[in-house]
Amino acid sequence: MAFLSLLFLFNLLSVAHSQTPQPPRGVLIDCGATVSSVVEGRQWLPDAGFVFAGTPKNLTTANLVPILSTVRSFPLQGNIYRKFCYVVPVFRTGKYLIRTTYFYGGINGKDSPPVFDQIVDGTFWSVVNTTEDYGQGMSSYYEGVFVAQGKTMSVCVAANSYTDSDPFISALEFVLLGDSLYNSTDFSKYGLSLVARHSFGYNGPIIRYPDDLFDRYWEPFGEHNPTIAGVRNVSVSGFWNLPPLKIFQTELTTTLPGPMELHWPLASLPNSSYYIALYFADDHDTSLGSSMMFNISINDVIYYHDLSVTPAGVVVFAKQWPLSGLTKITLAPAAGLNIGPLINAGEVFDLLLLGGRTLTRDVIALERVKNGFQNPPIDWNGDPCLPRQYSWTGVMCSEGPRIRVVALNLTSMGLSGSLSRNIANLTALTGIWLGNNNLSGSIPDLSPLKRLEILHLEDNRLSGEIPPSLGNIESLRELFLKNNNLTGQVPNNLIGKPGLNLMISPGNQFLSPPPS
Ligand SMILES: *[C@@H]1O[C@H](CO)[C@@H](O)[C@H](O)[C@H]1NC(C)=O
Ligand SMILES: *[C@@H]1O[C@H](CO)[C@@H](O)[C@H](O)[C@H]1NC(C)=O
Ligand SMILES: *[C@@H]1O[C@H](CO)[C@@H](O)[C@H](O)[C@H]1NC(C)=O
Ligand SMILES: *[C@@H]1O[C@H](CO)[C@@H](O)[C@H](O)[C@H]1NC(C)=O
Ligand SMILES: *[C@@H]1O[C@H](CO)[C@@H](O)[C@H](O)[C@H]1NC(C)=O
Ligand SMILES: *[C@@H]1O[C@H](CO)[C@@H](O)[C@H](O)[C@H]1NC(C)=O
Ligand SMILES: *[C@@H]1O[C@H](CO)[C@@H](O)[C@H](O)[C@H]1NC(C)=O
Ligand SMILES: *[C@@H]1O[C@H](CO)[C@@H](O)[C@H](O)[C@H]1NC(C)=O
Ligand SMILES: *[C@@H]1O[C@H](CO)[C@@H](O)[C@H](O)[C@H]1NC(C)=O
Ligand SMILES: *[C@@H]1O[C@H](CO)[C@@H](O)[C@H](O)[C@H]1NC(C)=O
Question: Where does the Malectin-like domain start and stop, copy by copy (predicted)?
Fold first, then answer.
């Protein structure tokens, strides 16, 4: 569910507009590409600055548009890494249309593309299943609307239990939307995940930029319905969602002045709440005085009473409408009206409850700890704790509304580099396991970690003295420092600390012999 296909293979839309509007603002990333390219006046960037995992690959499929001809693929390696994230700079509180595009091209050697998950920040977005589209030689895209909570946003792909070969991605787009778009949605709690966006009675190529100022895709729908489509002359205005005028040039309608039934969207939907927007504009000769009026029902539940449709156009939207299974929209004209109802376009989004975010202070501290390592785990990008099943390797987090990092276990991960003093800002930590790595430098002051119980730094190359402040951590009950290159005196407050399991030898060169 919730994915749409786009025939990208041979027909890039040829657009020859005399007055092309300003291209939408945002970032277009051509995943797996090593050089930037310009497509219809818009620049696509190579992905190297946005992602630190995976391998760029070139597709061998002939006649591909440039954006689909490369992918980045992420080796599964027995699922030791949880997620693979692109991190994109954004304007904080900016509202973004995010679009991911996938075209498999056989890069994993298997005939069929892998099925996997996609994630935005700490929120599970959807399953990516491109099997059917790929079987028809088409790419797949997913679109969502999310508001940036910070200065970056992450979009990640991750293996799920169906994933049988390496996840991949072809393109990633971030387009800044105008403030009024979809503004009935509370974007601090929800994201929108596109289910369908169609221009009714239309059968041309997908309507997008420059017709759509934000490059949303309006797919053709309804050429096969028992309806007519006409070229119309309406002058619409005042739509907060700013749909392209082109969608008002065609319509679905009935020749009979009776109710019209529309089975749309076509897919059977999971039981959830949906944002629905339906667009109308009357093209009849209104000089006769009668305006078009009808009731709208969805699955036989009244959705809007006595809608008056004029040439200026009208949109009717529901911000949380429950749908499940197949959907039927009925447009019933007011009694006595001898013109049939009409509809021009519609959008349906699944309302996605946001998964939350790890406490920002912990995220910043953990980023700095990561920067201290020369070779941090490749999945240390995106949200450290969320979604729950996709936390960073070795990062354990608290439950509840305030999500904090409570333990770090990077035992035997082959880590080089040093232990950043910013680890002391992760004040919810109760355990740190960094044994059997290649860490050098000194042990930072960890005394702000008031809840720390267990500290394992054994079998590294740490040097300098044991910070005496470790003895001030009351909760500390296990301290392993053997096999480093530590020197100086062993602090007395550690040697004498009751209930502390202290292991500091062999392998260090202390001036005072440790207690035996
Ligand atoms: C893909 O093709 C480009 C241009 O032909 C080339 O520069 C790049 O090295 C290729 N990448 C791979 C992974 O083969
Ligand atoms: C993916 O989609 C195909 C075609 O619609 C379907 O047969 C298959 O069961 C789906 N796979 C998963 C794991 O959902
Ligand atoms: C949405 O935007 C329109 C146009 O800017 C504005 O009139 C309206 O009050 C906004 N609605 C909400 C809920 O913010
Ligand atoms: C469209 O309507 C405008 C006035 O609203 C009129 O000037 C124009 O001729 C009309 N165009 C067509 C093709 O009917
Ligand atoms: C959809 O889910 C809601 C609660 O989650 C439930 O009350 C309702 O009966 C479900 N509807 C269908 C058609 O399954
Ligand atoms: C439309 O809704 C109004 C108000 O509920 C009702 O009186 C009218 O009969 C309805 N019209 C049709 C055609 O169902
Ligand atoms: C830490 O990770 C190692 C390696 O994955 C594992 O063997 C060990 O049980 C973990 N320790 C704790 C306390 O979770
Ligand atoms: C981290 O801790 C240092 C002092 O150890 C402090 O100056 C800094 O403000 C802290 N950073 C955050 C993000 O809390
Ligand atoms: C350990 O780190 C040092 C530099 O800090 C590096 O030269 C060495 O190759 C590393 N050893 C391993 C096994 O990674
Ligand atoms: C231990 O530290 C000393 C200096 O403090 C240095 O000369 C030596 O190379 C270090 N040994 C290791 C194994 O890092």
Answer: 29-350
Nearest Cα residue to 226 out of 200, 259, 252, 263: 252
Q: How far apart are CA 480 and CA 459, in angstroms?
A: 9
Is the backbone of residue 510 left (phi > 0), alpha (psi -120 to 50) or beta? beta
Task: Verify whether ligand 2 is closer than 6 Å to residue 132 (CB atom).
Answer: yes
Contact 377, 409 (CB under 8 A): no
Selection from 384, 390, 328 nearest residue 357 by Cα:
384
Whole-number Å distance between alpha carbons of 106 and 510? 59
Ligand 4 neighbourhood includes 286 CB (under 6 angstroms): no
Topology (CATH) of 196-353: Jelly Rolls (2.60.120)
User: Angle CA(219)–CA(139)–CA(205) in degrees, nearest 5?
Assistant: 30
Q: What pLDDT digit, counting tens, does each position of 366-389 carry?
A: 999 999 999 999 999 999 999 999
Here the tokens at position 396 are: 């354990």
What is the pTM for the complete model shown?
Answer: 0.89
How remote is the CA of residue 486 from the centroid of ligand 10, in Å? Answer: 9
Strands 328-333 and 292-298: antiparallel
**Residue boundaries of the structural domains of the chain:** 4-177, 196-353, 360-510
Task: Tokens for 245, please give them.
Answer: 């005028």
Rounded mean pLDDT of 301-324? 89
Q: Is the CB of 442 under 6 A from ligand 10?
A: no
Superfamily of domain 360-510: Ribonuclease Inhibitor (3.80.10.10)
Distance separating alpha carbons of residues 37 and 318, to the nearest angstrom: 40
